[in-house]
Design brief:
Elements lengths: L4 E9 L7 H19 L3 E8 L4 H10 L3 H18 L6 E4 L3 H16 L3 E11 L4 E3 L17 E10 L5 H10 L4 E2 L1 H12 L6 E2 L1 E2 L6 E3 L2 E6 L1 H6 L1 H4 L9 H6 L4 E5 L3 H15 L7 E4 L2 E3 L2 E2 L10 H8 L1 H11 L6 E3 L1 H31 L12 H21 L3 H22 L1 H4 L6 H22 L4 H11 L33 H22 L10 H5 L3 E12 L2 E10 L4 E6 L14 E5 L5 E3 L2 E3 L2 E2 L1 E3 L6 E3 L11 E2 L1
Parallel strand pairs: 1-2, 1-12, 2-3, 7-13, 12-13, 14-16
Antiparallel strand pairs: 4-5, 4-6, 6-8, 9-11, 10-11, 14-15, 17-18, 17-20, 17-26, 18-19, 20-23, 21-22, 24-25
Helix pairs in contact: 2-3, 6-10, 11-12, 12-13, 13-15, 13-17, 13-19, 14-15, 14-17, 15-17, 17-18
The structure holds 5'-O-[(L-methionyl)-sulphamoyl]adenosine.
EC number: 6.1.1.10
Keywords: Aminoacyl-tRNA synthetase, ATP-binding, Cytoplasm, Ligase, Metal-binding, Nucleotide-binding, Protein biosynthesis, RNA-binding, tRNA-binding, Zinc
Cofactor: Zn(2+)
């Protein structure tokens, strides 16, 4: 019989920032789905990769004096190392710089152009380089990028557009008729009501202001802008646009695209519309998981609160990290990463519950039977409870995994762990051991414990693969298939158990937290030394001459109602007075700057911010973590209006 197939994907990662525990979360979750399906008999394709084009990479590479490809090569190899240490069992790793992907994307672009879905026009708007996102005037928050809060740049350039709106009614109908397509449910409503139903704008899909991207074959000054390039990876990885479409025929449509909630919109609107335009079936499901937060909110480099998975794995091992992510974070909602909860979880669930069960079982088998697993010949009623629990575990696990309830799946396994520990207390093997007549009963108890642990280790394969292997080794398990869990007799009596190292040594919580904090400080200091914001493209002295910097005296300053970040200044520029709006209210009380001389860009085109005209910009600089900001001044008095250069 032909095996059923299962195609699961993660997002492809930007190589612009080192991956943190939040990105790791997506990939670990996808790995669990892939491993579970493999275990239960599916032919699985698990895809991950890297999203390597764009202006940001080009700038970072230039700052380092290397080519973009040289720049990304180093980072991509680091990402692959990370997946190795997290035990990620991907079947394919796609890089958007791979030749077959480039060809596939060019074919897609050409096809959509030829059939009239792509047209040429002009893009005018605001661009946030770090986020690689375009924004309209109304989307900006206090004049800055609504995602990251950093300044945006005004752009106008020739660009190709994709006629998204044409497909919107079909997509709305599709989403409404396929309730599982967008999950969790709440996110589906958000996509429909906030984005699709209000009407879609055509999507800008090419750029001419940088060249680190896939060129449009029939108009080489354009490179294909990030989302068309990135999203296509899910089909080019299977051979779309090549001579060999065997994998595409076999695995497409994908069973699940797993993505963070921040990129759900791209996957449930742009991507399905692209596929509709290509005449391809849509993925069966897009699942948007929540954020992994740290105390104090979202993880970000600038806040210095990024949790590094490599440090955690070095300190605790891979499986404890996987365990925490999978058990503690409700799949689909936001969850917290916290060192103390993490270490306590290792101590209670892994060291105490699971680790002790294994070491006690092996120790008793060695002490009472020289390690030889006895046959179960003297059954008693108390065994039924344990055996029933073991036999019902696989089905419960399958149900939870079908609903993508990963923590619930682990609850089920730990229920069996708990039952087996309780069984030791109920059957008191150490008392049975005192009575030679109870030898058969003692043997049965040991057999049942070993067999329960075999169930546990098979069920753990998708979640804690290393631990599962260690258990099998100590118990000398030779049948570890899913099907073998249909009956409670897979352990071979006569096999010899081999007590090995403790699975999870207990950790001193306080000491370890101190150590982690120390490592974090060291890494922070090291990162500071090596990291510098990339220098922007060179300009000529003539370019610089275009900027008119002037000394301005602050006459008045007040906050703006409804705009948390903004202050409104009235300044004296010598010959005239101006109003300037600046997003610095976090750092200054309005009265603090009155009477001071600041430096302003005097010939910046005026803009309206929160309904207030701003006729210039006050120069200032912030610390890396944005906790402090200082305005630029001169170290002596100059009259208002004086030129600064
Ligand atoms: N390159 C795009 C994806 C293109 S897919 C066709 C991208 N890359 S990313 O590197 O910025 O993010 C990769 C994934 O990590 C996303 O799913 C994102 O939601 C996820 N996460 C980033 N920070 C996260 C947390 N703090 N918590 C959980 N997931 C997070 O977006």
């Amino acid at each position: 019989m032909k095996k059923r197939t299962y195609y699961v994907t993660t997002p492809i990662y930007y190589p612009s920032a080192n991956l943190h525990i939040g990105n790791t979360y997506t990939t670990v979750a996808a790995d669990v789905l892939a491993r579970f399906k493999r275990l239960t008999g599916y032919d699985v394709m698990f895809l991950t990769g890297t999203d390597e084009h764009g202006q940001k990479i080009q700038r970072l590479a230039e700052a380092k004096g290397v080519t973009p490809k040289e720049y990304v090569d180093v980072i991509v190899s680091g990402i692959k190392d990370l997946w190795k240490i997290m035990n990620i069992s991907y079947d394919k790793f796609i890089r958007t710089t791979d030749d077959y992907h480039i060809k596939g994307v060019q074919d897609i672009f050409k096809k959509l152009y030829d059939q009239g879905d792509i047209y040429k026009g002009y893009y005018e708007g605001w661009y946030c380089t770090p986020c690689e996102s375009f924004w309209t005037e109304t989307q900006l928050v206090d004049g800055n990028c609504p995602d990251c809060g950093r300044p945006v740049e005004k752009t106008k350039e020739e660009a190709y557009f994709f006629k998204m709106s044409k497909y919107a009614p079909r997509l709305i109908e599709y989403i409404e008729n396929h309730p599982d397509f967008i999950q969790p449910e709440s996110r589906k409503n958000e996509m429909l009501n906030n984005f699709l139903k209000p009407g879609l704008q055509d999507l800008c899909i090419s750029r001419t202001s940088f060249d680190w991207g896939i060129p449009v074959t029939f108009d080489e000054k354009h490179v294909i802008y990030v989302w068309i390039d990135a999203l296509s990876n899910y089909i080019t990885a299977l051979g779309y646009g090549s001579n060999n479409t065997e994998a595409l025929d076999k695995y497409w449509p994908a069973d699940i695209h797993l993505v963070g909630k921040d990129i759900l919109r791209f996957h449930t609107i742009y991507w399905p519309i692209m596929l509709m335009a290509l005449g391809m079936p849509l993925p069966k499901q897009v699942f948007g998981h929540g954020w992994l937060l740290v105390n104090g909110g979202k993880m970000s480099k600038s806040k210095g609160n990024v949790v590094d998975p490599v440090v955690l794995v070095n300190e605790f091992g891979t499986d404890p990290v996987r365990y925490y992510l999978l058990r503690e974070i409700p799949f689909g909602s936001d969850g917290l990463f916290n060192n103390e909860i993490f270490i306590n979880k290792i101590n209670s669930d892994l060291a105490n519950d699971l680790g002790n069960l294994l070491s006690r079982t092996c120790a008793m088998a060695e002490k009472y039977f020289d390690g030889i697993i006895p046959a179960p010949t003297a059954k008693e009623n108390v065994d039924d409870n344990l055996i029933e629990c073991a036999l019902s575990t696989p089905k419960k696990l399958e149900d939870s995994m079908d609903k993508l309830r990963i923590p619930e799946a682990l609850d089920t396994i730990w229920e069996l762990v708990g039952k087996a520990n309780k069984y030791i207390d109920e059957t008191t093997p150490w008392i049975l051991a005192k009575d030679e007549d109870k030898k058969d009963r003692l043997g049965t108890v040991i057999y049942n414990l070993v067999e329960s642990l075999r169930f546990i280790s098979v069920c753990l394969v998708p979640f804690l693969p290393e631990t599962s292997e260690k258990i099998n080794k100590q118990l000398n398990v030779d049948i570890a298939t899913w099907d073998s869990l249909a009956s409670f007799d897979g352990t071979q009596a006569g096999n010899k158990v081999q007590k090995g190292d403790i699975l999870f040594p207990r950790i001193d919580v306080e000491k370890k937290i101190e150590e982690l904090n120390r490592i974090k400080e060291q890494n922070k200091a090291a990162a500071k030394k090596t990291e510098m914001q990339p220098i922007k493209d060179q300009i000529t002295i003539d370019d610089f001459e275009k900027i008119d910097l002037r000394v301005a005296k602050v006459l008045e300053c007040e906050s703006i109602k409804g705009a948390k970040k903004l202050l409104k200044f009235k300044v004296d520029l010598g010959g005239e007075q101006r109003q300037i709006v600046s997003g610095i209210s976090k750092y200054y009380k309005p009265e603090e700057l009155v009477g001071k001389s600041v430096i302003v860009v005097a010939n910046l085109k005026p803009v309206k911010l929160m309904g207030e005209i701003s006729q210039g910009m006050i120069l200032s600089g912030a610390t890396d973590d944005n906790s402090k900001l200082f305005t630029a001044t001169l170290d002596g008095e100059l009259p208002a209006g004086s030129i600064v250069r």
